[in-house]
Amino acid sequence: MRRTGPDVAAPPLPSLEGLTAQFYEHCRREELSFQRCSRCDRWRHVPRLTCAGCGSNSWSWQRSSGRGVVFSHTVIHRALHPGFDEAVPFVCAVVEMDEGVRMVARIVDLVADGTAMLVDAAVEVVYVHAADDVVLPAFRLPAAEVRGNGRR
Ligand SMILES: [Zn+2]
């Protein structure tokens, strides 16, 4: 089946509503920020109103170091949405940030061969301009790691 039309050609984008809109507003300024509880100092992601640790509704946005390590990853070989047809294969990872929160994001400029061990690899945030008003956080291996064949 041929897939065409503007409604299916572009990758899906996040819904910019509520706290999610606030998260992506930071990304649009190329800042990665997470919520942090004002009572117990726990960081959290994905955005939500209440702290899972202490139940407090008091929090603020705090800037992340932008650094973390790969907790888990997979290689996407088949685009399940036509917007990703040109992108495959690519690496999608769960990154554990220095602040302790985990987030799912793409690892750019790196295609694992299926045997590359990326778990515990240090990564740093980069920003992908996905649309006029949408910037998505992604990650890359630090430059020194890439020169070293992309592996630790
Ligand atoms: Zn708390």
Main traits of this protein?
single chain, 152 residues, mainly beta, OB fold (Dihydrolipoamide Acetyltransferase, E2P), five-stranded antiparallel β-sheet, three-stranded antiparallel β-sheet, binds zinc ion
Describe the structure.
The structure is a single chain. By secondary structure, this protein is mainly beta. It has one domain (15-147): Beta Barrel (OB fold (Dihydrolipoamide Acetyltransferase, E2P)), CATH 2.40.50. The chain contains 3 helices and 8 strands, in the order H-H-E-E-E-E-E-E-E-E-H. A 5-stranded antiparallel sheet has the order 6-5-4-7-8, with helices on one face. The longest helix has 11 residues, at 18-28. The radius of gyration is 17 Å and the shape is globular. The model is unreliable at 147-152 (pLDDT under 50). Bound molecules: zinc ion. This is DUF35 domain-containing protein. Residues 26-56 form the ChsH2 rubredoxin-like zinc ribbon domain.
